[in-house]
Amino acid sequence: MSNYLDKKILEIDLEKKTFLLKRRNDLSDIIGGVGLSMKLYGEFRDKKPLILSIGPFNGFFPYASKTSVFFGVKNKVYDYYLGGSFGNRMRFAQIDAIVILNRSRNDIFLEIQDNNVRFLDYGVDFQSHGLPGRRSIIEFKTNKYLHDNYFRFSGSEADSFLSFKKILGIVLTGTHNFEVKETLEYDILYKEILSRYEYLTEKKSEFPSCSGCPLGCAKSNIAENSGNFLVHSLVGCQFAKKLYSNNDLIVSCFNVLGYKYTHEDIEKYLNKLHNLYNEFIFQ
Amino acid sequence: MARRILKATFEDRCNGCELCVMEAQRQLKRVGLSDAPIRILRDNTSSNLYFYVELNESLLTKLNVNEIFKVCPTGVFEIIEEQDEQLLG
Questions:
Q1: Quick check: is A216 in a domain?
Q2: Which among B17, B43, B47 is the nearest to A211, CB-wise?
Q3: What is the average pLDDT across A148-174?
Q4: Burial class (CB in 10 A: 0-12, 13-18, 19+), A214
Q5: Domain-located, residue A6
Q6: Where are the domains of chain B?
Q7: Which of A63, A85, A145, A256 to probe by mutation at the B interface, max B CB count within 10 Å?
């Protein structure tokens, strides 16, 4: 891949029904996930943004399986980490963050395929959109939003915010494949991480799993909120915190993917994140 | 000569983790879902989440199916050995 450090931000304006994909190199010191969401929230807060973001390991490494969902209501901000396949599809759509601005006048579905967005009116056969095997769906069902018919937010704030924006559903398809330059090293590291079951704080079970996680744990369906900033910047699972807060492992992953981040960069980034954090009141 | 063929015999066990998809794609030296020899399809229409495993046998013949078999955490797959018809004929 050419330049991992640029961030691709898909801005969608529900009021104007327009969208714009921006490739931004000014965000290169922000690793991703919650850090990226906070930065973007600061830029767009007047437009009531709903921000979905991923980190550098989503789609590439096991247990980096969540999607950061970030929004503000009045003076409070909310961050959730939704399980399932959405973050994986964002990676393969080559989008680091989706920023959904303003409020639609009527109920709509969003169909996103790579860098293209369609605004679909209520009444369409939503399930027929997106490419099977490469799509991911968030949809309002009965009284709450479900992702892939199973994964959901904890509490009611995210559901209320999506309803406020008049979004009935989002179907996202990612069609890009990536080549990894250091194939052998990547393969070794991937399998090493995957094999570290003993580092996980949740047990294997028989429930649906998030993409890239073998566990099928009992808690995967409820989105996490709050927790470790580094883990949530990588948008890894909180149950894999021991793995994704290990700087040596993280730097190895960065290297193999072609990122230039060092231990020092991670420390600087975390300091910057704490400063950003102090601007907001988290729930 | 026997051919080793991957079959999703126990599809109902699939938990949707897609590790098999990633393993197959890694063997083809890529990361992603396009042109994948294995696809995991989700049925979103019923009241629960069900998965279906779609295999492209012609693409899978080039791969080490044993590694795909091993990576599945729920035992969806089995490997069947079939005699090559050309040799038998």
A1: no
A2: B17
A3: 94
A4: buried
A5: yes
A6: 2-78
A7: A85
Contact A29, A272 (CB under 8 A): yes
Task: Give the distance, in angstroms, between the CA of residue B9 and the centroid of all CA atoms in the same chain.
Answer: 10
The pLDDT of residue A119 is: 98
Which of B10, B11, B13, B17 should be substituted to probe chain A, the one whose Cβ sees the most A Cβ atoms within 10 Å? B17
Residue that wins the pLDDT comparison between B83 and A3: B83
Q: Could you read off the pLDDT of B8-32 as tens digits, one per residue?
A: 999 999 999 999 999 999 999 999 9
pTM, to two decimals = 0.94
Q: Does A59 lie at the interface with B, CB-CB under 8 angstroms?
A: yes
Domain-located, residue A73: yes
A261 pairs with which residues across the strands?
none
Asked if A79 and A59 count as a contact pair (C-beta separation under 8 A), the reply is no
Q: What is the pLDDT at residue A227?
A: 80
Q: What are phi and psi of B18, to 5 degrees?
A: 65, 15
Q: For chain A, what is the domain count?
A: 1
> Phi and psi of A220, rounded to 5°?
-65, -25
Total residues belonging to chain B: 89
Q: What is the mean pLDDT of residues B59-75?
A: 96
Cα separation, A70 vs A35, in Å, equals 10
Residue A262 lies in domain: 1-207+224-283
What CATH number has the domain bearing residue A169? 3.60.9.10
CA dist A211 and A248 (Å) reads 24
Interchain CB contact of A225 with B (< 8 Å):
no
Q: pLDDT digit string (tens) for A201-242?
A: 888 899 999 999 999 999 888 888 878 899 999 999 988 899
B75 — contact with chain A (CB < 8 Å)? Answer: no
The shortest CB-CB distance from B15 to any of A62, A139, A209 is to A209
- State mean pLDDT over A249-254: 94
